[in-house]
Design brief:
This protein is of the alpha+beta class and about 150 residues long. The chain folds into two domains: about 40 residues; about 100 residues, GMP Synthetase, Chain A, domain 3. About 30% of the residues lie in helices and about 35% in strands. The protein contains three helices and six strands; from the N terminus they run βββαββααβ. Strands 1-2-3 form a three-stranded antiparallel beta sheet, with no helix packed on it. A three-stranded mixed beta sheet has the order 4-5-6, covered by helices on one side. β2 and β3 form a beta hairpin. α1 packs across α2. The longest helix is centred in the middle third of the chain and has 24 residues. It starts with 14 loop residues before the first strand and ends with a strand. The model has no long low-confidence stretch (mean pLDDT about 95).
Length: about 150
């Protein structure tokens, strides 16, 4: 079903990357915000910044979080807490690493009499997060997110 959206039909995201002269670098995104990344120590890096795989998982969690909040606002649901944890598993296949799955767990706490709406927001979050929609056919996702009232 094609949804009518109040958001732009097309949007672009930009980033640039500069090597730090050692084992990592700095990404510069919109409005000159910076993200420092590095190679983990186990692979010969200094580990001074975020590993790109951590950024990958963080991007997924951020997208899920923001998608949930979009639906929460539309339903005018009282939200008390939203916490997500993610894990990407990578396997070395003899020639290199490949991410073989992503697991997302978490807890949503909603106001009284909002349990059904909270559960629906979780369903919509997992269905409409654009990052997970894009990669779900090549990387399996598992979700374990509970919703409770308080």
């Amino acid at each position: 079903m094609r949804l009518k959206s109040k958001y732009p039909e097309k949007i672009e995201y930009h980033s640039s990357s500069e090597w730090d002269g050692q084992t990592g670098g700095t990404a510069i995104v919109t409005d000159d915000r910076k993200i420092v990344y590095d190679t983990p120590e186990i692979y010969g890096g200094t580990g001074d910044g975020m590993c790109p795989d951590e950024l990958f998982v963080t991007a997924i969690l951020g997208c899920l979080n923001n998608t949930f909040l979009d639906f929460q606002r539309k339903f005018e649901m009282e939200l008390k807490s939203l916490s997500l944890k993610g894990k990407a598993t990578a396997i070395f296949d003899g020639s290199g690493y490949k991410i073989t799955g992503v697991t997302v767990s978490g807890e949503v706490i909603v106001g009284e009499d909002e349990l059904g709406t909270g559960e629906r927001c979780v369903e919509l979050m997992t269905e409409y997060c654009h990052l997970t929609r894009t990669i779900k056919d090549c990387i399996p996702f598992e979700y374990d997110i509970t919703v409770r009232e308080e």
